Amino acid sequence: MGQILIGAVGSLVATVVVLLTRLAFYKVYDMFPARALFKGIVGSEKSCLVFVLRMTDLERKGEFLGLLPTYAVATQQPRFERRQLIPYVNSTSETTSVAYVLNVLGSAGRAENIQLAYVDKDFDKWDAPMFILGGSVKATRAFETCNPYFTFRVDRFVLTSTGESYVPKTADHDMGLLQKMINPSTNLPVWVAMGWRGAGTIAATYALTRWWKELGFLYGSKPFGMLLEMNDADGWQQFRIVRFQPEAARLRKIVHPLAWYRLRRTLPQASLREGQGLH
Q1: CB 169 within 8 A of CB 110
Q2: For the segment 17-33, what is each residue's pLDDT rounded down to a tens digit?
Q3: Type and span of the H or E element at 264
Q4: Per-residue pLDDT averaged across 157-183, rounded?
Q5: What is the pLDDT of residues 116-140, one digit of tens each?
Q6: Buried b vs exposed e over 229-265: b needs ≥16 C-beta within 10 Å?
Q7: Count of CB atoms situated within 10 Å of the CB of 57
Q8: What's the pLDDT band for 75 if we cut at 50, 70, 90?
Q9: Is 128:188 a contact under the CB 8 Å cutoff?
Q10: pLDDT score at 89
Q11: Residues near 32 by Cβ (< 8 Å), separated by ≥ 6?
Q12: Which residues pair with 178 in a beta bridge?
């Protein structure tokens, strides 16, 4: 009886050790792409800024109408509730994107000292790691100073090294750009997530939450750009990658083949045509 009890306890201890060892392995495994991809953010106490563009009403009344839920199926007309003394509002796309950025930073191990910043109020702040969400003069300035792989010019995304233009295939498509740059003045990361329209901005931040480990394995602490497209009818969750820049190093693809496969398989074969618009 004693031998049976010792054997059972030994088996239980061995199982616990295996589970704890496995858990520790995955914790360490996850830490490497987080520390590399978010270098200057994860493991740092320096403030991290998340930039959005705030909007106001031209008449300066500070009055907005909030939609109320419709309780009865027969009720066809929307119901509103007046909100007053509200100086600024943010777009749904950028608010959703902020949530995704906070989500991925929390998953990567950074949950404190992350500050919401505004393009008009904090435009001159460049001495911190940052995320710039949506197209704005802040994003434009980052493109001008941080050596981007992709930029946005008037009505199209442009690959800076060749001048190639990328635009939605049809009016029912949207595009998004997820790009990591390095500020040459501070050596800190400047992330830009922006879309042709609002859905493209959300898709760019959603791509980060979905693939940050793969991006960490393939690019480490280096800058990169990733251009996305999606059909509005399918939603921004069903995006595909149009172009990586630069392509991941051969050695990293060999060492992390699964990460490369997961990203590579989303590349579409269809070409893009010219279009217009940005939000």
Answers
A1: no
A2: 444 444 444 444 445 78
A3: helix 257-264
A4: 94
A5: 999 999 999 999 999 999 999 999 9
A6: bbbeeeebeebebbbbbeebeeebbeebeebbeebee
A7: 13
A8: low
A9: yes
A10: 87
A11: 216, 217
A12: 193, 226
Give just the sign of the alpha carbon dihedral 249, 144, 201, 104.
positive
Instruction: Give residue 247's identity as a one-letter amino acid code.
Output: E
Inter-residue contact 230 to 238 (CB < 8 Å): yes
**Residues 230, 198 contacting (CB under 8 angstroms):** no
Select from 164, 123, 166, 165 the least CA-distant residue to 145: 123
Whether the predicted pLDDT of 10 surpasses 80: no
Helix (H, G, I), strand (E, B) or coil at 239: coil
The reported pTM is 0.82
Q: Nearest 10 degrees: CA dihedral of 13, 17, 20, 24?
A: 170
- Roughly how many angstroms between the first and final C-alpha of the chain, as a whole number? 73
Check: CB of residue 174 under 8 Å from CB of residue 229: yes
For the chain, the farthest-separated pair of C-alpha atoms sits apart, in whole angstroms, at 85
Rounded to an integer, what distance in angstroms lies between the CA atom of residue 99 and that of residue 116? 11
Is the bond into 257 cis (omega within 30 degrees of 0)?
Answer: no
Please give the structure tokens belonging to residue 204.
Answer: 């760019």
Q: How far is CA 278 from CA 18, 148, 149, 224, in A?
A: 52, 19, 19, 22
Residue 2: left if φ>0, alpha if ψ -120 to 50, beta else—which one?
alpha
